[in-house]
User: Fold these one by one.
Assistant:
Number 1:
Amino acid sequence: MAEADGPMTELASLRQQNELLRQQLADAAQALDAFARGEVDAVVSPGSVNPVLLAESQAQLRRNEDLLRAVFNGSLDALLLADDRGRYVDANPAACELFGLTRDQLLGRSIVEFAAPGYDAAASYRGLQEHGRMRGEFPLVRLDGTRRVLEYNATANVVPGLHLSSLRDVTERLAAEDALHANRAKLEEAQAIAHVGSWTAGFLPDGSVEWSREGARILGVPAGAPMPLTAFFEIVHPEDRERFRHMSHEAIERGTPADIEHRILRPDGAVRWVHERGVVERDAHGRPLRFVGTIQDVTERHVAVEARRSSEALLRIAGRMARLGGWSVELPEARITWSDEVCAIHELPHGTVPTLEQGITAYAPEHQGTIHAGFEACVRDGTPFDLELQIVTATGRRVWVRAIGEAERDPSGAITRAHGAFQDIDDRRKLEDQFRQAQKMEAIGRLAGGIAHDFNNLLSVVISYSELALDDLGPGNPLSADIGEIRRAGLRAAALTHQLLAFSRQQVREPRVTDLIEVVASMKPMLGRLLGEDIALTVLSPHPVGHVLVDHAQIEQVVMNLAVNARDAMPLGGKLTVELANVRVEEAYVGRPRDVAPGRFVMLAVTDTGEGMTEATRARIFEPFFTTKEPGKGTGLGLATVFGIVQQSAGFVSVYSEPGHGSTFKVYLPRTDRLAEAAVSEAPTAFLGGSETILLVEDDDLVRAVACTILRKYGYHVLETSNGGEAFLVSSDFSARIDLLLTDVVMPRLSGRRVAEQLAPQRPEMKVLFVSGYTDDTIIQHGVLEAGVAFLQKPFTPQMLLKKVREVLDADHRRAEEAAR
């Protein structure tokens, strides 16, 4: 409409100028006539009637009129001048072409003559005269009957009494718009049927996106209202926004089509899955103009696909976890089919279709007859079978399996098919074997724990009396050698008890600061005898190593077990190297377990030149009961014990090995800056005596007697009792100071711990030393193995008893000296 205003405005301006010039010329002509008739003596404005000026005005008027006509005739829009009665008084060529008439045929006609039936042209013309300006559409019917739709812009009184109209044929445009509206309606209908919406988006920072009706429905937003892109990004699910932004960036920057599935958060709170595709439209210079694309609600499909995937995954996982598959044999062709899991159990490629003979021969030779008989009875008589047998896999492994089968009959009763299940039960069988072994070990442990107390009491008596006798006889007495042998036998029996408890993991741990160089050096002669003459032993310690906090007996057990393991790996002889070194384990050290902090360690490495191990064997060597030795040749607890001891000492073990290239076991134990504790002193026991009073509570007569003998021999005053009740009576009757309560832990009716607790209020100055031959678990149950509690493990020697008693009695004095230093 704005284009139509141009020529009309220009024409109106020229007509006004012409009217003004005509008025000026008329005024000048009247003044000259009056002067010529003598009616006035002079012209009021002589300049206004100057002949030259008058000629110029007339020329300007002609130029304006020529220009007015040129604009009028040259306009591409139809221009018509009508009088107050609505009859055309002038028309340009475009108007004549529009109406299909010549100028002469058109002039004098009224607009009413060309109006389509039903259109009140007269009323419209009156409205123009009333309002001065009108716009609208006019349904034109030419004289030849053709119909057109005109868009008009009319202005009344462009000059007094004349009205100007500008007309434009919009028939094709309206038809195109109608077609577009129809196509849009069809598109909306198609989108609604297909549940696919469309969108057009501008670009940030002020971009917005317009959705089709179906697109708005999918998003749950009002249709027809542009949405800022920032608001749309808020609809995208938070977990998918970064992926969505990356996709959009790639499409804009690289021109790649956008294709993404993501979640949206609808305003009603619903979460839906949508699939969007889009492309970037660009201008001639490659600059992005807009983003156009489609959006489809794929929630149901996504849920269905995920449900199917989850179901299939669960079935696969269940099959893998249960190691369970299916099989079938079609009869009479004997065509066998295995599921993927059955193929996996046999370590064959998925989809393998073996023959029936191959299926039978896959079993271990000793089990082939059993499965053959079971299968024959099934297909012949319909007898089901449920067997546990071993197969030999494609890689040569023996695996225990459970084979279940039953027959299927046709309506006539003939057996046409056999099918069933096939399950890997190797782990279960191993667990059962381990459980039986564990039961055996538990029985050994219970036996060891049950006999340890009495046996340790007896050994305490034997060893103590032997040493007392040796002290009395002196080295030159002929009986000294025999009694020495008795003492050594007692010590060996004590060591055997300790090993038995260690084997069942019931020994009492006594960690102390230890120098591993001294440990290995003291064990070297024994290791040489253990390894034999065909294995060379080398000990390397290039520099002094730090100290570690370990149980001395347990670390000896670690070295012993590693040496035995290395010896068994070198049946034809070889070389064993024991190496000690200070190392620093960093955070990124690949062999360090997560629960072991990095820092300073002492490394004990045991390297052999034996057979080595495969990766599969190396992965299982620390498992309890795992062994590569022949049945009856090993318990599978040696390396498991090493692993457990090192773990209890806050260290870790790493293993390096390859078949045919030997093995290296590296034990890492945390370093401590404390000085190593001295071994049990062999100094004369006279230095361990004292004059203090000791209340002895021991239910075993022999142990009580030997303990009294030792203590009294070295100057102590001993109050001897056999149970807690006697201890209370003796304490009540004894008015002097009692310096130490020496009590057995486990006694009838009243434990040593209870005795100590009940005597403590009466004698707060009295110290306590617990003694027991029971195992770790039993002592813990009686609340003894706690920080700050003095404890002596049976069997003990006189020196051990005297040293421990002196240590407890002097604890306060020693602490005072340390504080003073």
Number 2:
Amino acid sequence: MREDPHRFPLESRRLRIRTLLLFLFLASSLSLILLRLFDLQIRQHGRLSADAIRQQQRQIPMPPKRGSICDRNGKELAVSLRSYSFFANPSLVEDLSRTSAKVAAALGLGPQEVYRKLQSRKPFVWIKRKVDPEVAKELLEVKLPGIYFLEENKRYYPKGGLASHLLGFVGLDDRGLEGLEFSHDSYLRGPARPPLGYCDALGRIAFREAEADVTLGGCDLILTIDEVIQYFAERALEKGVNASQAGGGSIIVMDPWTGEILAMADRPTFHPGDYRDYPPVFRRNRVITDCYEPGSTFKVMMAAAVLEEGLMGPEEKIYCEMGRIRLNGFYIRDYKKYGWLTFSQVLENSSNVGAIKAASRLGKERYYDYIKRFGFGAKTGIELPGEAGGILRKPRDWSSISLGAVAMGQEISVTPLQLLAAFCAIANGGNLMHPYLIRSIRGPHGEIVRENSPQLVRRVISSSTASKLTHILVKAVEEGTGKNAAVPGYRVAGKTGTSQKIDRRTGQYSHDQVIASFLGFIPARSPQLAILVTIDEPKVSSWGGTLAAPVFAEAARESLHYLRMRPSEGEPFPGTVRRSHEIERVD
């Protein structure tokens, strides 16, 4: 049988065609693969690398080390120290019951609470944040699978509750929530770099201890507060509030020449480190947030205006109507029946009738102008959150009895800080100074970021008027209602006050709910301290001279001894450096 001669050439052609098609297919496939590799490795390299890093690493926000808060002499009032925060990866825990028991015992937690956390399906669970080193020591020494820790910073207040209303407090995330911690949070916090956690293929996190401590510190606040004077002020206030069975109280100590606040305290108080354990009313800074009718302490401002305008001299006599005066159908009374009193004696004895008659010579417009010049009706601008501006109505809104009421310290609302700042203008010869708390802000490397200096707001009265009024206020302590404010060896200039609060049930002035106060500076000849004390709703008495004046005397006496001020002369001991009285004007 003969073979077809055309058969092999035909099959050969078909084989070549199949081979060519296979080659073209492989070549095109390889080209597509190469193009895809080019796209992945060259064109999308940056994006895919970033995605890979994000999948491998996780960041946990960690606050930076917070700056310290120190008193004027560098003594720390608030500081951040190392602590340990424990967390778990439940999927890596080997013996759930045993691990829960050990962790709970070491950290002082309930075993069931820890057990529930370790049953979580999440790869990251906090167990307890910011544990003190001595408490964390036991757990740090035991290597429990699935249990890890981070180093964090915890806020400590070395002096306990001292100056708590000034300092404020921070939350768990180290952000300021009240006081200076809040108002200067941006300075106290530093730039943060969150620590990295590396994940395995299942997304489980594993930290290395060396990666935790990567934060930078914030700035330090240097205050005008003197820790020792603050302590004396708080101790005296505590005694006064307890002795009078009062609902609360406050005290401020200020340098009248510079406006520097040396101490500021309230009662009731709290501990900043455990602020959650106290009700909000304990944490309120009454000195700047609470407005009240100042009562007879405000007669000092009326007297300053009358003397400055030359409407009356210290020895000019006023008939006090035997303790009662009628104003448009309302009777205003003194606590004693006075006849003729000199203008000086009106303040010494705190006569309402005499104050009303003196204020009538001023008139509404002129009196209002002086009140504004003393800083009332506006915030002082203190470096604390929540300051109130008080209430001062314009003369067009005054009633027919408002002039007399304001002269007695009614129908006007002030904060304790406003009142003391105004009073300092009398102590220093007539200058209203801007009160401040921050001397300087120091950077993490010791550099000065900001520095404050005394600032003059405006001249309110002449030095001559201030001198006359000081002489009257000295008599008010030595011969008048402020005798309990006397400090042996020093001359005190001051004024008592008792203001009735409004009864919310009746809308009328209450005879039981009052604020007793004393306002003074010492030594009268060369003032170093100006102090305001208020006692809120006392139960045993209602007079500022009885309740608040002794608190002033104790705080002043201890503070002057600490400052080494000479008795009688009011001059520093040799070697004591006076604070600078150089001032700048506020525009």
Number 3:
Amino acid sequence: MWSAAHRSLTQADRETGLGPEDLERLATAAYMLGRDDEYAAALERAHHAHLEAGRPERAARCAAWLSVTLLLLGEPARSSGWLARAERLLERAGGDCVERGYVLLPAMIRGHVSGDDAASLTAAQTAAAVAERFGDGDLHALAVHEQGLSLLKLDRVEDGLTLLDEAMVAVAGGELSPIVTGLLYCSVIDGCQAVHALPRAQEWTAALTRWCDAQPDMVAFTGRCLVHRAEIMQLHGAWGDALREARRAGDRMSGAGQALYRQGELHRLRGDLRRAEEAYRTASRHGTEPQPGLALLRLAQGRGDAAAAAIRRVADEASEAIARARLLPACVEILLAVGDRDAADAACAELQALAPRFASGVLDAHAAQARGAVELARGDTRPALTALRRAHAAWDALGAPYEAARARVLLGLACRAAGDDDSAALELDAALAVFTELGATPDAARVEAMTGRDSAHGLTPRELQVLRLVAAGETNKAIAAELVLSERTVDRHVSNIFAKLGASSRAAATAYAYRHELV
């Protein structure tokens, strides 16, 4: 009950003043309510109060946490100042204490940011040893988790994931303080998603959701939780829900770049290219790299040269395996689209080499689909079909309907190239049904063009989607909610449908839809 705690502690502070421990409690309540400035101010007061009470070690711990917080908020100079103060206090106090482990936390973070993961790993190992000597659960979990993240970036993926799991045992068991619990939930999920460890990411996201739901006043961490939920919902095809969660995340995060990038991805997939462009640009202003989404947007806009230049640039800058694995699927798609088959083949080969190192079903599926696309572009239908069937099966097993449908489109084209028109039609029909259900308007339009169906009735994929909901008896208001559109936009779609079909009513449009097997 963070709001009630904050009110009570604030009132007590006004009336009688708070001691150092209660100032730390006030800081915690402010943090959980998303009040970063109040948190820092209360923790600074606690630092001074501990000094006045003759507890330099505890004052140093407050200073170390201030250093961590300021570093995460993008204030490295102030962070460095507080860390220097903490180290000086411990040097004066002499002796061994657990705070000597806490002052290593900023070094771990700086190591990750600078790419010196070996230094971060060394600092984390030292901090873990300190935590074990003093039985400090918070410090131990933080240090073990930092070791795990460092190992992930050093390409020791299984070892890294094992350490992240170990840290999460303490989190899930309720053994840690609230701020450390939230930090570890979000950081571990980020780490799992970075290496495409989807089952782990889903498991910990579900646990984080339950933890957040049990604290309705909490603002801190809820935005990150919503971004993680949106990404998983997107993968599983719940695009409307994913967009709503991403928008909620943007409203609740101080740094909304990740939420805006996720919104951009969803707008792009649904064919709303203007909103996608705006979301990617705003994400960039918030410090989030808008690639590969922005490059894929350029491809959707018909600007292949710009797309290829962008994806080549970010791929050239990415040196770590984790970063490259995230970019290579888009790299293959874009390079094939602009006709650079040799470069696409090289990117595909790298992706295939990386996938086993991550032991990730997602990367395996991407690698198989990329190989199938490259072989299809070469005209080698037999290896293309083999790879694409493997990709489709992998996406299907992961519960990823959009990606599975994209694999089926390529399968359809490969079957057509092999002279099997019946199988090609079956694959393309199945993909079209999924795209239409998801609201993947650009993909649906491409498949309809492949099958020649777009000329039969003149409806766009979005209008077909609206017509099917009209035929299901939905009102315009309900359709707007389902498709995450304004009611005015749905009104316009319905009017266009009536005009194209020559229908004067919803009943007539519904009859046309059933007569022509559009539903």
Number 4:
Amino acid sequence: MNFACFQKPSRYIGNEINIIRKDTEVKVALCFPDTYEIGMSHLGLKILYFIINNIPYASAERVFAPWIDFESHLRHNRIPLTSLENKRPLKDFDIVGFTLQYELSYTNVLNMLSLGGIPIRAEDREYNYPLIIAGGPCTVNPLPLTPFIDAFVIGDGEEVIGEIIDVYSRFKIQDSRFKHKDTLLKELSKLEGVYVPSVHTNKQKIKRRMIENLDDAPFPEAPIVPFTSIVHDRIAIEISRGCTKGCRFCQAGMIHRPLRERSLKKVLSLSQKSILNTGYEEISFTSLSTGDYSNLLPLVKTFNNLCSESCIAISLPSLRVGSVNADVLKEIKSVRKTGFTIAPEAGTERLREVINKDFTMEEYEETLTKLFTEGWQSIKLYFMIGLPTETPSDIKGIINMTEMVSRKGREITGNRININVGISAFIPKPHTPFQWLGQTPYEELRARQDFLKKALKKKGFNFKGQHVELSLLEAVFSRGDENSARLLETAWRLGCRFDGWSEVFDFNRWLLASEKTGIDLYKYASRTFDINSELSWEFIDTGIKKEFLKSEYQKALKGEVTPDCRHICYGCGLECKPRAQSKELIAHSSKLIAQSPESLHLQSATHHPKITDSIKIRVKFSKTDTMRYLSNREVITALLRAMRRVNVPLIYSEGFHPHPKTSFGPALPVGVEGLNEYFDIELPALMNTESRKSCSERISECGINLSEFISKINASLPHGLRTLTASPVNKNKKSLNELISFYEYKITIDKALIKPINFFISLSNCLVKREGGTVDIRPMLEKAEINNNSLHLVLRDTNGTKVRLYEILKELLQKSVEELQTIPVKRLRLYGYSGLIDPLYSTSRRRAID
């Protein structure tokens, strides 16, 4: 399949670093109902991929929701949705599992089943279809999806996924024709944490599954490294699960209780192995409240001691006001500043007490002072609107808190601070103290958001607000009952999918679905329930007592704060075990890691005591096969990460955001193969290497073996991306983009195109419009020869104007860019030449750059 005509073709090619391909007895499709960039950022998917592929008789393959253009292609050509690993159709798997992270991905679940050739309703799936399961935080209210899913996993999935596969494997052996699927479902219903709608009644309690010790929980040490840039394009290490803060709006903080921490030693060990296996340049230590991890300062200090010389930056998710530590900030910025996010949630202290977001304005100001003192000049703030008891004063408080950031930033740094403000609507969630409350009416949410948008933009702040319609639908399904399933299916049949994406979302279709089903979206989202009533999702037992949620609801209405429960137990219903470890001294943690056999030894040219200079190496490489679908940026990233994986000692730039000193030749269009492409890289030279010596002599003295250099990189590259040669060049010579002026291509064509080619050749000029004006592209065609079905082209830059391949091919072949992207094109060679560009340029003067 030619992916060049689709948006972001690297979403679909697979073949990534650390991909696992197996052919086993039990085949599991891990489906994420959103795009590749979203799904590959999800840590849970990576954990399940690792666990399943470590079961000898099971294999896991990934399937993501295809974007609109690719879906259209699949449906038009009747091609089933397939996995990335083995291109296996979804219907040919034994188990198809969906991750439910977000209510607005529900239509994509139905769409992926349909694209995979699987009936969307469980009752229509006979024995010859896969078992459809679902897990993730949304399963604490599975009712909107019960007609479509065979079994739901409630809670942590690390242990139960193996049990499900074991049951399925035994059942498959006993009943190879799968004529008794109801027997399989009954067996699955016996597993703790598994809800089977066709077996259980909504009166039977389904207890959440929970991992007690994170150190014993499996965690990937060699996660897949995507080619395309994903949302969280970095290593992610989960340092703790659960939270003790008790924010009353936060479902995750409630359903992931109690708090469990990974030990410092385990976190560092996972971090080291992940870096070596991926080549990532950034790591994120993730949790619901990272700033409250008991060993955060020892963690970042020890990590930096081990890895800072490799310029691996640390990023932390949104930190709680009050948990920001000046010493931690110093450690983060010592390598590279990453973005910083604060989530005050509410604009006044009164409203923060209602939602149990416990901090004062003095603490807020102190946090800002720490950030700006350590040099941060860009801040993200997140707030919610429509919170219970919210008043106009609370809305204005959001503006006041944003202005304080600006004032404090100018006062400390003397510069204007870049401030991004994110506004989203409060969504009442099941199993939280606010589950009985309805969402603030749509019109009021719209008015509040419009007010904030106008006020914040007027003051020069960047505003980003979620569409109120999206918040409305999220509220509909977060507390949805069995009736909402009808609404969901109707909306999907009307064409709804990717509802969380503004460029695709069509609210009118949802209004039509509302009309067809008789479910009023506005009333449904704003429903309130009596605090003593039985709620439809209560058969899911998260471990939290209803009495505790009631108590927190009543305290919220009184504005009473419940302090951090790590200091005192409030009887929520879950047993908290002692902390995994006490806070350790830096010296002790460093000693602990130094003694570990897995200690990381990454060396950086920038900090080697003998390094005072660098040597430039010119590397020739090829980009063929499926790698031709990578963009220029993706190729650069893939090559740099390969070099990091094999510990090539890169030279980094200076400044707040250091990056490897490399330069690449002219970019190839996506879909075009390159047989002889180039990039330059700087490697370290030693102090006793005299600069007057030749590059070859200096490389020899530095102990750099270029053949070994090429071999090591190739061993870490995917099929289709390969380094060919490496040669020393003078650092003072022209850059590749300055040097290269001629481009040689081979294009497969139909003989019917000879006529338009000859016509173009006969032209004296051919003017096309570009951003900066009009360009004559006719002189850029130096040579065009046709041999059978091959067109051999030589193109050149003219008068400082760079060639654009498809711009010329469009006029030369009289085809649209979309048509041209289906034609096989290879760039054979790149050339430079001496002297000025001359219209009478002779090919004999051309000089290959290597």
